[in-house]
Amino acid sequence: MKFSDLHTHNHMRAHFWMQENPDRFKKNKSFSPWTVIASNRKGYLKGKMGASYSQADLVKAWNGNVRLTFNSLYPLERQFVKGFKPTPGKDKWYRFLLSFATTHKLPLRDFIQTAYMRIPDEAVNFFQSEDYDYWDSLNREMEFVKSQSGERIKKNKIFSPGIFRRVFESKKKRRAKYADENDAKDAKYFIPSSKQELAKSLKNDSEITMVITIEGAHALGTDKAPVSEISKRIKKVKNDWPIPVFFITFAHHFDNKLCGHAHSIPDVGKLLLDQTIRKNEGFNKNGFRIARELLGLDSNNKKDPDLGYRILLDVKHMSAKSRSEYYSEIVRPCLENGDVIPVIGSHCGYSGRKTLEQHIQLLDSERDDYCEFCEDETKLSKSERKDLIKSMSPGKFNSWNINLCDEDIEIIVQTGGLFGLSFDQRILGIKSSDSDKRNGVQLIWENIEAIAKAAFRSKKLTDEEKPQIWKCLTIGTDFEGLIDPPDHYPSVLEFKLVAGNLVHEIEKARQKKSAKHLSHLKSIEDTRALVEDFSFNNAEAFVKKHFPK
Fold first, then answer.
1. pLDDT tens per residue, range 121-167
2. Strand, helix or coil at 44?
3. Which of 199, 335, 385, 402 is the most buried (most CB within 10 A)?
4. Is 278 buried (19+), middle (13-18) or exposed (0-12) by CB count in 10 A?
5. DSSP string covering 418-484
6. What's the Cα-to-Cα distance from 125 to each of 107, 118, 263, 330, 542, rounded to whole Å?
7. Other residues' Cβ atoms within 10 Å of the Cβ of residue 268
């Protein structure tokens, strides 16, 4: 079985390690997206958070039979590596102490970043410096990724971080003993620049078809550049880049000065990171302008050829308010005029909520282990909701507004979009009280089934539209985004195991008389076909239909 991944960072570990000292790696011809940054195998085997080991580098993708990857370019947001300023009268005393102790001007911050993110100190120092520019970094990353597109390599290189490992570890033994993790032979990836090249590459199982995406509109330099310059940069991407961008995850973890981002950082993360600026807010005027220009639309939502090809928007990380405004101001008006803009949620989980308005009303309830509770929760006061949360057992799904609700699912189906299922266990709804048994295929299947059920119970979707949800679901792991994967599936090498386990779970589920959402499955062959759609076919059909050139 072949696999695709709607949101991943195949090159990220290599690029983080090499970008600030390229000459060092060019000397032995290891300055390449294929170079493996040697992993901590204990972290990999335990399925811990993907910082100390690689989850989706090109070697793993090649050996895991990933043959379609939506590889995301991402200039690291500087808020991850710089200090924050606490607010007098709002923040508690320990926030002021932490702010001082972890400022980027003191060595503790660098130590935390290098230990947690496992990237070299020289890279952290650059990200903290005034010389670090998102737009420049985006272009350098693009050049790095395309550098070996279309080239078939005989064998990849391995780089071991740390002097001790480089001196005492044997790369030859590592390559031989853990071949799937470290050894790719006669391997190739190809970034298509046209629909014809895309179709040809997808037919060729001896290469990985790589489609380029961008995570975060901040990558265009929205932190410093005026909106007129951002418009010029969009034209540059569309007209001058040698490879097209398929979609952009418009928001990310911090303020991009265009639209509100969803609450995404767990409570413990607030000790070091501050998301408050524009968190959970909506679009501003410049945000709508840039969104339309990416989509090739004028201010009246009409297609404008002068704005170039359409770069689709990914709603992951948009706040519920931003998503609501995006749908009402752009997606639905265009749909009514016959211009279908497919809605993409590239690496999401199901929230258990029915509407975006419910998310908006319940924003102040979001905290770690926060899940859906009851239909009437929005009618309760803040204190009553707090008591409810304490008294009731939490539900299955992570109800932060970073996840998608029934209303999001409805418009994904109506526009023929894609819901990429994240493999981050927190996003999927794992809680501190959960047993290990749930933290595996059960976690994945619960989200898939709940998404399908949401479509089938919808009063806004027709009977013809409801089954189309099965064509709108695909893998969207967020591997290499420092996520904590479900147990047993720490990397793309386990995709085959995921698929086999899903067949088993769906076979059990379809035997139930109440499973109307699975009534079209008449045999195990039908079930396997459904899993193949989720694993590869749905993403392939989508990119073939919407590839921009």
1. 777 888 888 899 999 999 999 999 999 999 999 999 998 876 656 65
2. helix
3. 402
4. buried
5. EEEEP--HHHHT--TT--TTTTTHHHHHHHHHHHHHHHHH-SSS-TTTGGGGGGSEEE---BTSS--
6. 10, 14, 27, 40, 40
7. 9
